Amino acid sequence: MASLAQPGQRSSCWRGAIIRAGAPSKPLELRDLSSSLLWLQACSKANTDFQMASSIISRDVAAATASRSIARLMSLLRLEEVLCMLGALGGLGSASPYHSFCRRKAKSWLATSLRQGMKSGLVRPGKDPGLDVKLMLRICVEDSTAELMEKEQLAKAHLLRALDIGFEGSGTLSLSESDLVGMPEELRRDWAAAGWFTGAYSAHNQKLSEGSTGRSSLCAGKYTVPTGRDSMDRIMPYCASASARQRLFEAYHQGFSAGEVNSAALDLLRVRQSLARRLGFRSWAAYELRPLAAAVREPDAARQVLDRCWQHAQPALAPMLQKMRQLAIGCSKHSAGDEVAHIDEAYLRALASRESDHLKLAEFLPAEGALKRMLETVGRASNVFFRHVPGQPTGIATGWHSGVRVYEMLDGPPSAAGSARQDRRLGFVYVDLYQRRWARRQLAPGAVLIAPGHVYVGLHYQAPSYGSTKLLAPEDAITMAHEFGHAVHMLCMGGCMQEYDDLPLDVQELPSTFFEVLAAQSSVVEEYARHHASGGPPPDTLARSVQQGPQFFARKLRNLSVGLGLHSEEFDAGNASPRELQAAAVAQWQRYSPIKAHPGFSPLGEDAGMYLALGANQEAAKRWLSPEFATRLRSQLLDRPFPGQRLASL
């Protein structure tokens, strides 16, 4: 077990965590970054260095010193946010009065120093690296505009909470064995575990609400199914009971239509509309699109791109739609003739595309083995090598949870056995495979640059029961590849947190999207998928089932259309009601759907995809794993610094 650092050493740990000085020599110990007082002292030192910069005679030296000090203070505040998220800084007391005081004090120092620096010309927006341009924009605008920016953040947080509640579901359905006909046992097993007690409790409450004095039945249903997104993903494609699908569909979307989601979304759209106009833009969409490529820099241009994608997708979508229409005849009470009803879409698509192969492929994706082989696959494509750090202490020794796995990322392919070559370390990756058993809500996967050379990847899969093997869904494996793509990019670029955040959004997402597409190719699936018992690769038919078809990209188009339309001038949030917002969202969704939306449907309950990933053929996928392609990927994208000019572009 590592020995505890002395107070003086721990104070210097804060400075070392944010200053880029080559690749780190050892894994990060969160324990040394767990003191609010020492964090505030590091912030105070950065603030003092800035104040002293104004006394330097040389203007160039003064500007360089001031910008470095401001960047250091910004990095410390960003690091504080990440450590609070990981439970390292302040732990459960991250919102305690003392820590809140430290945070407010550091933020006030930063705001004051930024105003002084921009007024004196020592801090130059858009030119000095490592500076939070959005924060600088907030500082230099009028107080009324800064207030709108704060309101936008609060409204965004409110909407995220409302969506979280909607995705989780606010009720349950009591379903019988016949209601879930056609569903594999592994998809409904956990609903049966609590079904007897919860079903009896719900039935008893219903009797009481009706004024009945008799005893309630304890057999309301064998399965108690939450009306959340997870149940939708399981039941809608695989359940053969049309009535069960209808009950769940309507209950799930009712949670969005009748809940706070539409009101919260409308509040956010109104604030963003006012803020965009205050900043000189016609709409929030115009403001957000400005830093992107010229082809989508304006809302009208972005809409034209979506229209072209939809037009070009028609030949690929037509055969699947025809199959679904044929299956709809006599297959569902919701579909009239050969028209596909919205409630039946997922089920008929699963029948037409043999989507059940997805479930069979899970037997070839044991979590531990898939993690190791996915790291090897991502490493080959990016010309790096992940090496597990064995015996890394956790818990009290370092501050990391015992479930976190530590890997060092080395430059180049693996060294041959006995080779004397010294591999260049690019940094460390901390992989959190499972969500904590006591967590109240399901956390979304994500990669976070904690400090230069240190990346945390939280996959947050549901942990298996004791003694059993965790099998991943194919979508989980694709998510793993996506997040490791972010991790490779963060370590290859070698910058700090703010420098990464200041990259254009399309540059940030391009590497992760590439690895996501790579992992979906059947020839690559065979590289990381092995049967949990026999260790053999999956059959070709199962390997091909991972690759997303045109229906997947059509769903992405629909969700992109909703976000673009509601944030553009097409929708007047200032004069709209929540009901009108839902109608506008449905109209935007319908632009790219051949199937008429259900009257109770809420597009905000769908998956809001941000990017449209283009597929590629299998021959190209094999080339992606070649050393030549990996070298080009590193030199042309992953290792390149992209100057942040977002503030200047605004």
TrEMBL record:
Its cofactor is Zn(2+). One of its GO terms (biological process) is peptide metabolic process. Residues 236-546 form the Peptidase M3A/M3B catalytic domain. Keywords: Hydrolase, Metal-binding, Metalloprotease, Protease, Zinc. SUPFAM superfamilies: Metalloproteases ('zincins'), catalytic domain. Binds 1 zinc ion. InterPro entries: MetalloPept_cat_dom_sf, Neurolysin/TOP_dom2, Pept_M3A_M3B, Pept_M3A_M3B_dom. GO terms for molecular function: metal ion binding; metalloendopeptidase activity. Belongs to the peptidase M3 family. This is Peptidase M3A/M3B catalytic domain-containing protein. It comes from Polarella glacialis (Dinoflagellate).
